[in-house]
Design a protein that fits this description.
This is Glycosyltransferase RgtA/B/C/D-like domain-containing protein. InterPro entries: LipidA_mod_glycosyltrf_83, RgtA/B/C-like. It is found in: Cell membrane. Keywords: Cell membrane, Glycosyltransferase, Membrane, Transferase, Transmembrane, Transmembrane helix. By secondary structure, this protein is mainly α. It has two domains: 330 residues, no CATH class; 111 residues, no CATH class. Helix content is 60%, strand content 5%. It is built from 25 helices and six strands. It has a six-stranded mixed β-sheet, with helices on one face. A hairpin with a 2-residue loop joins strand 2 and strand 3. Helix 4 runs antiparallel to helix 5. The radius of gyration is 25 Å and the shape is globular.
Length: 540
């Protein structure tokens, strides 16, 4: 028992250090979603309203992407404790990342009643590049994994409990899954589908103990009753139409274009049948789904710079043989049927929500895969150990290979990522905002280019502008990318027309290098960490 406790304590310490070390410094800047969480949480803390003036919203309008509310509300006490800074904004994600590692151990143990597989699953999640990448940034998807793991663990405890303990465990399940529906958009697809299989494989037990399930059922109904109007509201539909391949403006398919081509070829009737979107989207969905399983995506490139360290994918290359072995062993070996169904169902439905969106594969939208990959890896490592002849040599070689992969990842993440990917992390916004504020009194106005994406949010956040004052001045007009009417104090957020605007008043301009002519008076150049010019600050 002492050995088991010490092993778990070691994993917890490791997970904590990896998620909190330099949390406020690396990645080297917040992106726009993180600043939105931060400033809206700050506004809630100070005024009870978000940047638009909505009181305690259940959906944050933000950049007109209408974020689920839970993560922003988790940032509120963090800011109250640590102040408005990058560490505070990322703190809930890192903390829930550590808790996910812990509860992965408990969940896997309930599934297989095998402490070694549970420890290994927890350890592999603790050092997972995929999980670490998103535990260290304020993205809601990482927190959604915690609620999925917690709810599943509580469900497994519940079906083995008796009497009122059933009510307690199943209520925790309902709360965890219910909260997840307000954590991240993809959870609104994953949780209902995942819950179906949990209920199905336990239907006989549930019917037998239905008198203990009244309270959990009421909790589930309450969460659903609150969520459904949000999903079908105008704001909910805007988010859906902005990301789904089924929208008319989807970059993947426009039925009208194909129909027009058929009309020109005299095949209009046939075209209307063959290009009916109910048929045409099937191969697109299949392709999108399978794209999440590409080896290059998983082990080398991921999908975009912000989602991985240089030359590192979402999983270690070391993982590959053990993931494949784990899948094989889980199918062929004498594990209980229910755990098999739960893990494989989780794995199979994880990319469903991401597959109906454009821009796939997408590491952020499909992170809900975790911790299934780590469970497969743990099973593979464990079963191999049982069957190999030279066990000590196997352990030495396996541990050495993993350590090399892990050490390379840490080097890439802490040394190369801040430099190579500082542009992708929107580095320089803090520096530009603070400099513009330091010379503000020398100018009648400051124009900050909207080509510095969501510039108003960065300036509000980094200047810690008083939310009450901001709302009094009108608050945010719109978070859309084309919005040019946002302003506060001397700051105006709009496209730069330098030749015209410099004549209107004594103006300080903040924009991208490409927005200015050559004969300008540059007060400051903010550079990306790789030495490339990021932002010009120019005087009229």
């Amino acid at each position: 028992m002492l050995k088991n406790n010490l092993s778990l304590i070691f994993i917890i310490i490791l997970a904590t250090v990896l998620r909190f070390y330099q949390l406020g410094q690396n990645p080297p800047s917040l992106n726009w979603d993180e600043t939105a969480h931060g400033y809206n949480a700050y506004s809630i803390l100070k005024t009870g309203r978000d940047e638009y003036g909505y009181r305690l919203p259940l959906s944050f309008r933000s950049f007109d992407d209408y974020k689920p509310p839970i993560y922003t509300y988790l940032v509120v006490p963090s800011i109250a404790a640590f102040g408005l800074n990058d560490f505070a904004v990322r703190f809930p994600s890192a903390a829930l990342g550590v808790l996910t590692v812990i509860f992965t151990y408990f969940m896997v143990f309930e599934l297989f009643k095998n402490r070694t597989i549970a420890f290994l699953s927890s350890l592999f999640l603790a050092i997972s590049p995929w999980h670490l990448q998103f535990s260290r940034v304020a993205f809601e998807t990482n927190s959604a994994i915690f609620w999925s793991v917690l709810g599943t663990w509580a469900f497994l405890k519940g079906i083995r409990a008796k009497g009122l303990r059933i009510t307690a465990w199943m209520s925790l399940t309902a709360i965890a899954f219910g909260v997840n529906l307000f954590m991240y958009h993809n959870a609104r697809v994953f949780i209902p589908i995942f819950s179906i299989i949990l209920l199905f494989i336990s239907k006989d037990w549930l019917l037998k103990n239905k008198k203990y399930l009244v309270v959990p059922a009421i909790i589930a109904i309450i969460f659903s009753a609150v969520l459904i109007p949000i999903i079908f509201s105008i704001s909910g539909q805007l988010r859906y139409k902005g990301t789904t391949i089924f929208a008319d403006l989807s970059p993947q398919y426009k039925a009208s274009q194909l129909i027009a081509q058929d009309e020109q070829s005299g095949q209009l009737t046939v075209g209307r049948i063959l290009h009916n979107r109910r048929f045409v989207y099937i191969p697109i969905l299949v392709e999108n789904y399978l794209s999440h399983l590409k080896p290059t995506y998983l082990f080398f490139t991921a999908d975009m710079d912000r989602h991985h360290a240089p030359q590192i994918g979402l999983l270690y290359l070391w993982d590959l043989p053990f993931v494949l072995a784990g899948v094989y062993f889980l199918i062929r070996k004498k594990f209980e049927t229910k755990p098999k169904i739960i893990i494989f169902w989780w794995f199979l439905i994880a990319p469903v929500a991401s597959s109906v969106t454009w821009g796939v594969p997408h590491a952020l939208r499909s992170e809900i895969y975790l911790p299934t990959y780590q469970i497969f890896t743990a099973i593979g490592v464990y079963i191999f150990y049982k069957y190999v002849r030279f066990k000590r040599l196997y352990l030495i070689l396996t541990a050495t290979a993993l350590f090399i992969n892990f050490a390379f990842y840490l080097h890439q993440y802490y040394v190369h990522m801040p430099i190579e990917y500082s542009k992708s992390w929107l580095y320089g916004r803090r520096e530009a905002a603070l400099f513009s504020e330091s010379v503000k009194n020398n100018y009648d106005r400051i124009i900050v280019s909207t080509k510095i994406d969501q510039s108003h949010e960065f300036w509000l956040y980094y200047l810690k502008y008083d939310p009450q004052k901001y709302l009094t001045e009108g608050g945010t007009v719109s978070g859309g990318y084309l919005e040019d009417k946002n302003k506060f104090d001397k700051y105006f957020f709009k496209p730069i027309d330098f030749d015209k605007q410099q004549k209107e008043a004594k103006t300080l301009f903040v924009g991208l290098p490409s927005e200015f002519p050559s004969n300008i008076k540059i007060l400051k150049i903010v550079y990306y960490l790789n030495g490339e010019p990021a932002i010009y600050i120019v005087s009229s």
